Backbone:
């Protein structure tokens, strides 16, 4: 009987741990990037919401002033007092609207900057 020096080894199944590690590392890296981008988007959304709430607070104060003027709580109700009250409210609302537009226009730049910093 002839024997060979080469002994036949049974085929081994690939180690599943190594495959999982090879697969999960790139997947986790890409998932982490997506999560960071979502966090940046949510922070920008939070900033936009905060700016809107600031504007709504100014609107509420202006409405309160207008009600006080119309009810005569600010003093004697005359056409000149109503005119000055309207001018004051109009200037407050104009300032608040301009501030709101300025903040909203900066949001896209801030979002772009945050994303580029992350990339």
Residues:
């Amino acid at each position: 009987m002839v024997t060979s020096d080469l002994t036949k080894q049974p085929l081994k199944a690939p180690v599943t741990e190594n495959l999982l590690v090879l697969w999960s590392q790139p997947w986790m890296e890409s998932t982490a990037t997506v999560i960071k981008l979502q966090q940046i988007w949510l922070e920008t959304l939070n900033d936009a919401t905060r700016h809107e709430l600031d504007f709504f607070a100014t609107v509420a104060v202006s409405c309160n002033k207008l009600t006080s003027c119309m009810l005569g709580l600010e003093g004697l109700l005359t056409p000149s007092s109503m005119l000055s009250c309207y001018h004051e409210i109009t200037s407050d609302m104009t300032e608040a609207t301009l501030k709101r537009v300025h903040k909203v226009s900066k949001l896209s730049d801030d979002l772009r900057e945050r994303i580029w910093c992350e990339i």
